[in-house]
Amino acid sequence: MGGCTEGDDARAWRATGWLGVGLAALTAVEVSLYFVYAGPPPDVNILTRLLVNVPLIVGLIVFFASVRAMVVRAAPHLEWAATLLLALVVMYGTLTFVASALEGGLAIASPQDVDPTIAANGVYLLYGSIGRVLTAAFVGLAGYLAGAAGLLPRWTTRFAYALALFSLAFVPSLYFGNDPTSFYSANGWGTTAVAGSSMLYWVLAAGLAMLGKARRLRG
After folding, report:
1. CA-atom Rg of the chain in angstroms
2. 71 contact partners, CB below 8 Å, separation of at least 6
3. Per-residue pLDDT reduced to its tens digit, 109-130
4. 6 has a pLDDT exceeding 80
5. Residues 156, 205 contacting (CB under 8 angstroms)
6. Is residue 143 within 8 Å of 156, Cβ to Cβ?
């Protein structure tokens, strides 16, 4: 790491920044697929959105692995927290893949069209309350590290904290039934789609800030 030049730094910032922007765009595609059909969607819709989710989660892990490396280089004493950040993201990704497998398996096995957001009751808490706790944890920690290591502007830290609190506000939704058309329920569109994708707002903001930093490094 000590032999890295400003050119190397600029390339790393730029690559990570563009990855963040790309992940935000991919999230917009995935979320929109959930709102195409009013009733049970055809299998092709379900399986397509799950396939879109695979590179999204892998990209998310790569993005935060890069953030971890940047934190460790800028502030070695924060390595333990940066490692915790990556562990939380990997845990989130693993649970998301499990939920996706439950949805996809149900769609494949069912002889007629089925809405897995209702029928696959095992995903309620994975996409809902459990997911919201993990999201709040790693987004909040990412914001703290970005500020403590001096990687990104201070507003990105405040934005991360706001998103973490927003995500935590949906944890009690598990007490409010399983109506996916409800904003605030265990599998409601507010709990899963809005709050579930909110972490990508920070990834997008951080990505844009990284692109700006890459331009400054290149002079």
Report:
1. 18
2. 78, 79, 81, 82, 85, 145, 146, 149, 151
3. 988 989 888 888 889 999 999 9
4. no
5. yes
6. yes
